[in-house]
Design brief:
The chain has 337 residues and is an alpha/beta fold. It has helices at residues 29-38, 50-59, 66-78, 87-100, 117-126, 147-164, 180-187, 225-237, 252-261, 270-275, 279-293, 299-304, 312-324; strands spanning 7-9, 12-14, 18-20, 42-49, 105-111, 131-136, 169-173, 193-197, 202-206, 211-215, 242-246, 265-268. It has an 8-stranded parallel barrel with strand order 3-4-5-6-7-8-11-12, surrounded by 8 helices. The chain has a two-stranded antiparallel ribbon with strand order 1-2.
């Protein structure tokens, strides 16, 4: 029984639904080759940040706004550093990766607004990026009059960048302050897909100096379950929007579940650090075995068998049951204390 794993992700045709999420691993030429050989359908490069693009814009002689000057000054003052040292180096990385690989290479931009992105987005297209992933990190909620204004700024950014490029634009948006299902409908004509991710960095408080700090760690295996509900909501509200699931994809079961929920691809990142690139082959093997068991010949067959979302009454029953469940309490003396 031949299994066709080809999938469509926002205008791209991939040989498998496993995509390497944005991370520093993909800056290494040898690692990229191993990821492709393991069966990845596409690779997202680590992000180029807005501050670096503003600096590039200034160096090529184009004017920058007052806000951009402030952002650039802050970056220089705080000595912010990223995986790629500058915007020209990032373009070189995109060119090198696309010439090396047979699978799509997706560039990643991370920032607040669209103003300075337009020219650089065109440069990424010229560098042969197959698509661009825009990680929209909007300013704090209290800088807006309401969630509507946040969504308006995101819609404007997507529309401007989409008009500047001919390649697919995938949008990665933090969920605070916005309704992703409704936003998906608004930007469906401009965005080729949404990247739904599980979490951002954790905020912690240092008890020694009473200051805040931001902490990143690998996403825990099994936490991909947190993606299922938002993916189903977006897919049911806007079926035309292509979706990537990102965060906690660590097993073939995770891959299968997010695909059944409505995602077109599953992005793996943390598990690559834990298990190495060969884990991609294991994820694919498990997916193929599941498809054989259910007599699915292609990813399209799997998609046609996605479960219908909860009816309102059924969802309420599960909600009440979960909050009313009596959980067993482990008593201290059970451990001989």
């Amino acid at each position: 029984m031949s299994i066709d794993l080809a999938t469509h992700y926002g205008g791209l045709t991939l040989r498998s639904p496993i995509v390497v999420g944005a991370c520093p691993l993909s800056t290494d030429d040898h690692m990229r080759a191993r990821l492709q050989a393991a069966g990845a359908g596409a690779i997202v490069l680590p992000s180029i940040f807005e501050e670096q693009v503003i600096d590039w814009t200034k160096k090529v002689g184009r004017p920058i706004t007052y806000r951009e000057r402030k952002l650039l000054a802050r970056s220089e003052r705080l000595k912010i550093r990223s995986t790629c040292t500058d915007a020209d180096g990032y373009l070189a990385l995109v060119k090198r990766a696309t010439s090396q690989l047979d699978i799509p290479v997706i560039a990643s931009m991370n920032g607040y607004a669209a103003n300075g992105w337009l020219d650089y987005a065109g440069e990424l297209q010229e560098a042969d990026a197959a698509a661009i992933e825009l990680n929209v990190h909007h300013p704090p909620v209290n800088e807006y009059s309401g969630s509507g204004q946040i969504e308006e700024s995101i819609v404007a950014a997507i529309e401007e960048i989409d008009q500047a490029i001919a390649i697919p634009l995938f949008v990665k948006i933090e969920r605070i302050g916005v309704s992703l299902p409704h936003l998906a409908r608004r930007v469906c004509s401009g965005a080729s897909g949404f990247v739904v991710y599980g979490r951002g960095p954790d905020t912690d408080i240092c008890l020694e100096n009473l200051k805040l700090k931001s902490m990143w760690s690998l996403t825990s295996p099994g936490s991909a379950i947190q993606l299922i509900d938002p993916i189903m909501r977006i897919h049911s509200n806007c079926p035309a929007m292509s979706i990537a699931a990102s965060g906690g994809i660590a097993s073939s079961e995770d891959v299968i579940k997010v695909l059944l929920a409505g995602a077109d691809v599953a992005m793996v990142t943390s598990e690559l650090y834990r298990s190495g690139p060969d884990v991609i082959g294991k994820l694919i093997d498990g997916l193929v075995e599941f498809m054989k068991q259910h007599q699915f010949n292609s990813i399209n067959d799997l998609q046609l068998n996605r479960p219908i979302e909860f009816a309102d009454e059924e969802a309420r029953v599960h909600y009440v049951a979960a909050l009313s469940a009596r959980l067993s309490v482990v008593r201290p003396n059970a451990f001989g204390e």
